[in-house]
Design a protein that fits this description.
Number of strands of chain B: 8
Low-confidence stretches of chain A: none
Distance between the termini of chain A: 52 Å
CATH class of chain B: Alpha Beta
Number of strands of chain A: 14
CATH superfamily of the largest domain in chain A: Dihydrodipicolinate Reductase, domain 2
Helix content of chain B: 40-55%
Helix content of chain A: 25-40%
Strand order of the largest sheet of chain B: 1-8-7-6-5-4-3-2
Number of domains of chain B: 1
Number of domains of chain A: 2
CATH architecture of chain B: Alpha-Beta Barrel
CATH architecture of the largest domain in chain A: 2-Layer Sandwich
CATH superfamily of chain B: NADP-dependent oxidoreductase domain
Radius of gyration of chain A: 20 Å
Oligomer: heterodimer
Radius of gyration of chain B: 19 Å
Shape of chain A: globular
Order of helices and strands of chain B: EHHEHEHHHEHHEHEHEHEH
Structural class of chain A: alpha/beta
Distance between the termini of chain B: 26 Å
Largest interface: A-B, 46 and 52 residues
Structural class of chain B: alpha/beta
Chain lengths: ~325, ~290
């Protein structure tokens, strides 16, 4: 058994408490938050120790790892402190507020050889993994274009909100929603090196964008578009998709299905000429505990597995999370032009 | 006592009405267009009733309120009809938490002004009386079903599984007791973690619970795997309802429902469909195999 704790008990933090708490190889020892309302609920109903100061928790609890699920501006001091104390760290996305701080955390984690992972859970959805495999297998031939999209109903009316509506604290659609899409593009198609024509549009929010549009140019020369809107109530929940167009066809992939169109059949992959549909049921990663999606458990399983077996994660390292932050910065700079 | 009252073999679900499709976002969108008007929902429900289906298992979505209004204004037509409410409609709260934070969400959804010390809801929060707060939220969700038969009342898997993972078992115990007492109904549990839930409920002294979980031969959304689920279906004492039996469309109805027939303990099957032909076909398959 390894010992872990959760810092930050918002929506993602509570979800991590449940997933880590149900993990058979982990003893969830403690939770930490500043809300006395939430801490009192834990005191009353659960057996985990509660703290309002993460430093005190780390001092007292002899932990192997922490999950940091606080608002983004707290990631840097908390992750840094945990790493300095020799703990493995799972950090929610977006990773860092400034890439300078992010660079420091990446170096620190690597120099201490600690397992480090960021919560870009889409990489634990079977369909996106299959998309990556198909692209690497050159099913589409040379890629000519991509479109990365995410839509959902987060901010659908004009009113003040939480830290998520403050750009200086890591809020806004670019940090919160678009980062998922950027991270998928980055790991599946190629790393963006330039943003152009970036548009950050406020629809209902004040001081923060509700939609992000623009073009990205990748390190392999491929270019494509980003289209993300969190004020779109035509979607019941966040829906994220990638469309990739190549000389040999096209693939549209989301969390539930992959639609493949090929100009000619691909015998090796068993893909017909024309459309082939593949569903998540064939690709879902098996988990022992399910909450809101296999991917949330699968990412924690991966993190725990890396700690137990003393290896580094190949998915969602701090370095990968930080690269997404760098692309976010490129988009912000480009939009100012 | 309603305690061991039988449930219908066929429970008609509502995912198709609210653009929930586990296999395809595109199909979900098509459904959302088709069921834009409440009348379209009522029409399909009436078709299900004509085919002899008497139980509608539905989320506490705002639009179900309108369906309930229609039922109340046509009491003769719906006199034998049961609703099994499943609360809460979680996306409503999840989106609110992202936007307003946890306290903000409580403020928005607990009836009464939270800051008014005399309001019941406000008192519950100020005193950190969490179980009272749970009761208030249950009451708020149940309001729309006033005057309608709700012999089984479910909590949705996202809440059940969250509580299960957080090991806040007293909340489950309190919910169970409250549903029995206040609503004279049988509490039901939806989960993606059936074996873990059953063990937990048994450890709390809750025996023979109604548990609705995914049951299909490919193990889709069955945490712990098919073999463990089959063992529980064969050996343990509980009242299983099968959902996601088609595994989001990966299985054909005939093979899917024949599989369920291997487990005599399964009392009911939850399914949703939009066309009369589909409803009829699935209902007959269930009745012939279960």
């Amino acid at each position: 058994m390894i010992k872990g704790a959760i810092i930050g008990l918002g929506k993602m933090g509570l979800s991590h408490v449940a997933i880590v708490g149900a993990h058979s190889e982990v003893d969830l020892a403690a939770v930490c938050d500043t809300s006395t309302l939430v801490l009192d609920a834990f005191k009353k109903f659960s057996k985990v120790n509660t703290y309002s100061d993460y430093r005190e928790m780390i001092e007292k609890e002899a932990l192997d790892f922490v999950v940091v699920a606080t608002p983004t501006r707290f990631h840097y001091p908390m992750v840094k402190y945990a790493l300095e104390k020799g703990l493995h760290v799972f950090c929610e996305k977006p990773f860092s507020l400034t890439t300078k701080e992010g660079d420091e955390l990446v170096d620190l984690a690597n120099s201490k050889w600690l397992v480090n992972q960021v919560g870009y859970h889409n990489h634990f959805i079977g369909t996106f993994r299959e998309l990556k495999r198909l692209i690497e297998a050159k099913v589409l031939g040379d890629i000519v274009h991509f479109t990365g999209e995410a839509y959902g109903p987060v901010v659908t009316k004009e009113k003040g909100g939480t830290w998520r509506s403050k750009p200086e604290e890591g809020g806004g659609c670019l940090n919160d929603y678009a980062s998922h899409v950027i991270n998928l593009i980055q790991e599946i198609i190629g790393r963006p090196v330039k943003a152009s024509g970036s548009l950050l549009k406020s629809i209902y929010s004040k001081g923060v964008e509700d939609a992000v549009y623009g073009s990205l140019i990748l390190d392999n020369g491929i270019s494509g578009n980003l289209s993300v809107n969190w004020s779109d109530e035509t979607h019941r929940k966040m829906s994220t998709s990638l469309t990739v167009i190549g000389k040999k066809g096209k693939i549209i992939c989301d969390a539930t299905e992959i639609k493949i169109y090929l100009k000619e059949a691909n015998k090796k992959e068993g893909l017909d000429k024309g459309w082939t549909m593949k569903y998540i049921t064939d690709f879902a990663i098996p988990v022992n505990f399910y909450l809101r999606g296999e991917e949330y458990s699968a990412q924690i399983d991966n993190f725990v597995d890396c700690i137990v077996n003393k290896k580094q994660s190949t998915y969602n390292t701090f370095e990968q999370g930080l690269y997404t932050d760098k692309v976010v910065e490129m988009i912000v700079e480009d939009a100012k032009k | 006592m309603l305690k061991n009252k039988e449930m219908d073999k066929v429970l008609f679900g509502d995912n198709q009405f609210f653009a929930v499709n586990h296999a395809s976002d595109e199909k979900a969108r098509a459904q959302s267009i088709r069921f834009k008007e409440d009348a379209a929902i009522i029409k399909v429900l009436d078709q299900a009733i004509d085919l002899g289906i008497n139980t509608f298992m539905c989320t506490t979505h705002d639009r179900i309120g309108t369906v309930c209004d229609h039922m109340r204004s046509n009491p003769a037509k719906y006199k034998d009809f049961n609703i099994y409410p499943c609360m809460p409609y979680a996306h409503k709260y999840a989106n609110a938490v992202t936007e307003l934070g946890i306290l903000g969400t409580i403020k928005q959804y607990v009836p009464g002004n939270i800051l008014g010390t005399f309001a019941k809801g406000g008192m519950a929060v100020l005193n950190k009386d969490f179980l009272k707060l749970m009761e208030l939220l249950v009451d708020a969700e149940m309001k729309m079903f006033k005057g309608i038969k709700t012999p089984v009342i479910f909590i949705q898997n996202v809440i059940v599984d969250m509580i299960l993972g957080m090991k806040m078992y007293d909340v489950l115990k309190a919910y169970d007791a409250y549903i029995r007492e206040k609503y004279n109904a049988e509490p039901g549990y939806i989960t993606m973690n059936m074996p873990l839930l059953l063990d937990t409920l048994n450890s709390l002294g809750i025996e023979n619970p109604i548990i609705c979980s995914s049951i299909n031969k490919i193990g889709f959304r069955m945490s712990g795997g098919v073999e463990l689920y089959e063992k529980y279906l064969n050996e343990k004492q509980f009242r299983p309802i099968a959902m996601q039996v088609l595994a989001a469309g990966a299985l054909r109805p005939k093979e899917a429902i024949e599989y369920l027939g291997k487990f005599p303990k399964i009392e009911s099957v939850l399914f949703g469909a939009s066309s009369k032909g589909h409803i009829k076909e699935t209902k007959e398959l269930i009745e012939n195999n279960l």
